[in-house]
Amino acid sequence: MLAGKELILATKPFAKEIRWKSWYHTIVGFLLLTGSILGTYLVPPVWGKILCSLFAAAMLSRVFIIFHDFQHHSILQKSVPANVLFTIFGIYMITPPSIWKRSHDHHHNHNAKLFSASIGSYPIMTRQKFMEATKAEKFIYLAIRHPLNMFFAYFTTFMYGMCIQSFVSSPRRHWDSLVVLILHFGFATFLVVYFGWITLLLSFIMPFFLSHMLGAYLFYAQHNFPGVVFRNNVDWHYANAALESSSFMAMNPVWNWITANIGYHHIHHLNSRIPFYRLPEAMAAIPELQKATKITLNPGDIIRCLRLKVWDPEQNRMIGFAEMVATDMPVIPKKAG
């Protein structure tokens, strides 16, 4: 049984990109994205525009994950054209370079640590810490993990968290967050003035809204699922965190294509240098990778993931409100006789 460093080394052969494949997926992704957005302008029937808008949302999701791989240096390293292309895309997706890479790298390096800053991750509290928290702290914690936050991720996670909050916290360091916001609202205003509200909705708002919502939930479920393990910093190990605290989201071929194999998240966390198109290959070749906790996008699995609220060290698992209330109930002794 491979484990720890040996398991990471076993994935190394798959961390070599196939250059033509990287360019193929990148170029096709951008062409399909551009075509679907243009379709919202040019296709005459309203239902055709709506279909193009939905496909644009799917392509934003796919290209974003390819962009995410580029940020991990798993594809198209040292390519100037790719750097220009993905920098523009990152700005378009309201993910400023200065905050996105720093926060996501922190997430990878501290995934599933109980006592670490929740930079780039959903916050996690132990049951005791939650019970001792102030009302304001509980509200903020639950608000960030609430389904509505994921549903409106375009506004909350990306527009506010990635741009507004980062700029307010450090204007000099995150000046590009303000630039991204100005460009985003400037382009939205241009669409309204010259093309109208319907075009703004179908070509701009709806694709962003749906793709950001999907991304926010996928990221949540990949690290908040029944069976996930969180550890104290002393007991934490990078390889164990990848396999115990990152899920394998089993999807059909269509969803795997839309999400660029991000469902193989445990392998991505084990070795982020593996290109997205080689993740299934790595899983098929290494038996240890096939034992990850599996979840799906079925409604039942989604509900089970969303119910999880805090980490209970005594039970060594995530629990929801119902269990918290049950374990808090005082035991009243029965009267004699």
Contiguous low-pLDDT stretches (5 residues minimum) are 329-334
Radius of gyration: 22 Å
> Reading side by side through the largest sheet, how are the strands ordered?
1-2
Count of separate structural domains: 1
How many angstroms does the end-to-end distance come to? 59 Å
What's the total number of strands?
4
Tell me, briefly, the overall form.
globular
Kindly state the percentage of residues in helix: 55-70%
Total count of helical runs of at least 4 residues = 17
Mean of pLDDT = 90
- Determine the structural class based on helices, strands and strand pairing: mainly alpha
Determine the strand fraction and express it as a percent band.
Answer: under 5%
Give the helices and strands as they follow along the chain: HHHHHHHHHHHHEHHHEHEEH
What's the story with the biggest beta sheet? 2 strands, parallel
Description of the molecule:
The chain has 337 residues and is mainly alpha-helical. Helices cover 62% and strands 3% of the residues. A two-stranded parallel ribbon has the order 1-2. Strands 3-4 form a two-stranded antiparallel sheet. The chain has one domain (18-325). A hairpin with a 4-residue loop joins β3 (310-312) and β4 (317-319).
Key terms:
337 residues, 17 helices, mainly alpha, two-stranded antiparallel ribbon, 4 strands, two-stranded parallel ribbon
Topology:
Layout: H1 4-10, H2 19-42, H3 46-71, H4 80-92, H5 97-110, H6 127-132, H7 135-144, H8 147-151, H9 154-169, H10 175-195, H11 197-221, H12 238-244, E1 248-249, H13 253-258, H14 265-270, H15 279-285, E2 294-295, H16 299-307, E3 310-312, E4 317-319, H17 321-328
Parallel strand pairs: 1-2
Antiparallel strand pairs: 3-4
